[in-house]
Protein 1
Amino acid sequence: MTEQTTGNTVVEVRGLVKVFRDFWRRPKVRAVDGLDLEIRGGEVFGLLGPNGSGKSTTLKLILGLLHPSAGTIRVLGGNPRDVRNKHAIGYLPEESYLYRYLTPREALHFYGRLFGLCKSTLNTRTEELLAMVGLELAADRPLGEFSKGMARRFGLAQALINNPRLIVLDEPTSGLDPVGCRQVKDLMLALVRQGRTVILSSHLLADVEDVCNRVAILSAGRIRAEGRVQELLEQPDTVRIRIPSLPEQEMQALLTQLRERTRQEPDVDHPSMALERFFLQTVAQESAGGEDAAALAPFLAAVPPIDAADRRRGARKKEATAGDGS
Amino acid sequence: MLQDGRSGDRVMARLGTASRQFWTLAVLTMLEAVRQPLFLLLTASALVLTSLTPVLAMHRFGEEGKLVRDSGLAFQFVFGLFIAGYAASTALSQEMRRGTLLTVLSKPVGRTTLFLAKFAGVAASVTAFSACAILTTLLSERVAERFMTGEHLFGHITDWWTAVRLLAVPVVAFALAGVHHYRRKGPFTSWALLILLAGLVVVLLGSGFFDRGGRWAPYDMAVQWRIVPAGILVTVALIVLAAIAVSLSTRLTTVPTVTISALFFAVGLAAESFRGAAEQPAACLAGLVRRIVPNWQHFWVCDALDNGGVIPAAYLADTAFYGAVLCAGILFLGVLSFRSVDLK
């Protein structure tokens, strides 16, 4: 994945602390404990951590939904509790909190009116979003009847109703099938290509690895590791070489040479396709000629041909080629 | 001067945005409240009980229609209390716990605007209930047995025709709402409430074409319109109770909210008894309670309607103003509470 940071700081957090108190105002839980964070424009920033690590609390502090106990937060250059800042922010909460008796169309109209969108824009945008998340056929069903996956899709639609610059997604792929997960990830990449910033909180590491430029790993309210995904995951003391299959004799000769040079037994296997891509291809074949096939084709093309590690390798190769050219 | 003009434009733009958001949130709150099955159940129960009172009444207490009138207003008050408490809790407390408020507050909506809009939505739903209750009381009072003399009437007459039509209204409302839900998948509860209200208006207007014996007669609705101001005062009291419930909902769940609101109601009904406590040992406490707790006796004026009495417009205006001042004070505390609460 190419790096597309624009350099400006979208979110800046310094010394953030959040202590939840009980009814008697005694400290109960120290959910965030001295967090320093900087999120730049035009990137997908991943916030990882086990359950109870403070991910959702951090996001809610950034959105001004919680009062910090200590520290400062600047979002889009302003106070996160400033209502004016929120015109440029879209938020998908961890759970799909829905108005049970509203239909998706009514709910999107409701959220759109809060942003002051005019009727024609709202109508157009509502239909586009419903089509994008695959809910156009369920547009007039009460949200209370939705499955978890459908609710999540709607949640994504309402987060984008205002064409936000900063999109905060808390567990966006929770409850979605692999097809839906891929669609959400492609959507995040498409948003970043448009210059927006995405903050993604998840404990599904494969999803984060696929889309994030930089990540921060939280545990017990503190950042334990932070940096570019590529740099954090690379093992610089190990090299993997990919070659076409060779006849057995030549292969053994090569292995013998490697053995002599490295004084270690080389690890040899056949590279495998990512399970996600295999699943998507299989589903596409099963539904060939039907609606699913037509619906699947566009985002299948957006799926990288190899896994995430190879994508990073491809990015490095591109950089190296660009360097040679200069 | 140019800067002043621009800052003035900005202020006007912000006011316009806030008022649009207020209206949007208030309408949604009202829709969510009236779509709750319990809202319809309480409204229909109050309507049916009030409609049955003239049929079940065994005594007239010295005035025809008094029992029905007092019972109708009492049902409006008590059922309205539970509706106000439940609607307020649904509007705020449950939304805070369910998380829907998180999504709303992530949009450019101020907490003060949101809180006041929630109150407005709850007050609107309480007013809708009160409208049904007042119409039912008017019609029930007409149904109540009276001693009539006329061309074809003599003796104690119960207006059975109006009684049957009145009792048919909830049945028809539920049936039509069910058909609409089956054919068009429309929301059952809100449509039932709408048809209920429309049906009561139709029965009220239609009753003018018939006399108490069920025969065609020159148009005369023959209802005691002086009940309406009493019903309006009860509605104002319910709106004050709604303000208490909404403010409590910023920190408490449904059961504590309804319980404490009921406590305010009970203590407020006894507020007059604290007035004469100046010489008592707990005079300070009594005075404090009398000043803090709303005096619901100001809103309960059934006795003034006895023997043909009417409620003066000046009293109606003064008491409505008292209710408005109470609401303002209670909502101010509610706003302070809501602005400082963490939404987990």
Protein 2
Amino acid sequence: MENTDKYGHSIYFDSEKCIGDMACLKVCPTEAIRIRNKVAVMLKDKCIDCGECVKVCRSEAIVPLTNTFKDFSKFKYTVAIPSITLYTQFEKNIKPPQILSLLKKIGFDEVFDLSQASITVYRSIEKYLQSSNVKPLISPFCPTVVRLIQTKYPELLSHLLPIISPLELIASVVKSQISKRTGLKNEEIGIIYITPCPSKTILILQKLAYTNQGKPCIDGAIPISEIYPLLMRLVNQPVTHTTQCEHYDINGFGLKYGSLGGLTSMLENDNCIAVSGVNNIIYILEDIERGKLRNVDLVDMHACMEGCLGGTMVVENAYIARSRLNALIRYYGDKKPPIGKKDYYENRNIYDENIYKPQPIKPIDINIRNAIAKVVKQKEIYKQLPQINCGACGCPSCLVFAEEVVQGILKLENCVAPDFTKVKSLDSSPQPREQQPKKKEAEKTEDPGDTPLNNISLYSINH
Amino acid sequence: MNNEQSLIYNQLFEIKGGNFIDAGSASVNVKKTLKLIGIPSEIIYRVSICCYEAEMNIIMYAYRATLDFSITPDKVVLKFNDEGPGIKDIELAMKEGYSTATSEMREMGFGAGMGLPNIKMNSDEFYIESEENKGTKLFIGIFIDRKPNNHDKSGEIT
């Protein structure tokens, strides 16, 4: 998991394996992928580690940078903190305590459950909401969301809730405890997150997860998909059903944190909303930026559809996982634990407010005069293009192609799109491209192929 | 390449009154361009608030409008020109909290009577001209290098 560049991405593009079939090019919500010399490359300043490209890549060329078991041999003592999502990957008769016990069997020295820590975090959030004037606050628990805000919406960084996630809470507490108990040095103890997605490794790569003493508190992340087969082998041995599993104090109310909308339902606040999917998040962030959500207290944002249950590195589909999680919540009781009950973790959960630094995307030119000139030129070039966003040039859209031409990366000749004017002339209302009225100027035509009229005419040609 | 002609970026948008589905699309496009050029984010923030408030005013009250958006190295200019009922009493409309919004509009989170005052507060140059039953013209200028607020001597925004 070596990654030394300043952006610290959790995704790696393997040019040897890439077949250049452009699947990733089209799904990238931040237009961070180009096909150059027939292979996909990532623009590091634009990528937000959402993992959409990992999902669609057919040649296994886009690899999440996570750990494997071998990486942990350097630690003398390993601690596993599984995502709540792990509990939902197995049949309903296999309960979290058994899963946690099995994790110990496959080699972890100690295992921690997240449901208790979620309650501590939820209480801090509830408290913080009462005192905060910022509206709406945005949950920072999905690293992709944080990354998106850092790159594209830096002015919204002040909306991020300055509270650490349950994972970081446990990690920041247990290391020193174990060190005291066992006499081992901090470096000899490995805190490993069992993760549903690669983006959590950003926490490690960008060194975001720190204890209050400034030491990294999470040392590795291993995907659920990697752990699953190991656990499954043990689950299927009939003996394990009878072997006694250790006691873990699972909290049903805390388990809610694991699903999309869980946090908002824990807060019992009607002014909180939950959003998932990068494109939906962008839509909401735009609204926040325009001041449209002033009446909302908190927006819980998760880049994956269905939240962490829909992560890129899980085994079970998100909908089954959700129903299993709901069953677990019912099984353990979804009542809010009384406030008097002692929290498992001491109250050390307020972040340094300045932890999230803007990482804005590079502008078209550093000099503002040059930048304006370049944008003017870009629009001129765009007008000459077929505007069908075919992607054959290696850019996700014609507008991006025009930008690359202005930047001197590509040449106008690199546009290999066939002449579609003939197809267009079969339209019910024939209009040569050049003479299209101002509507085109109105920029709604960034994707002209998608207007219903065009679709209809193309469709009828096909038949 | 820096002759004066190429140093003005200009784009025209059409905004339709009553088109709530597309509401804010001009603002989104304006912001995209500003980001590409690398305008400082606090300036983008102010431009997008102004642009969005003005765009929503049009969508709520006017029939149709054009937005003439331009960028020069010194400032961002938004010129709105709408055909609509016009504003009877501009001075009154500039007062915070004054609104003629219907309950429907309020339900959508608008009509707090903050539109025009908000635009003025976030802009460096602000001119408004309106003729009843004809339409409204709005000129919004925001300096990129943060010169003091022309109309607001307290200059808190800048």
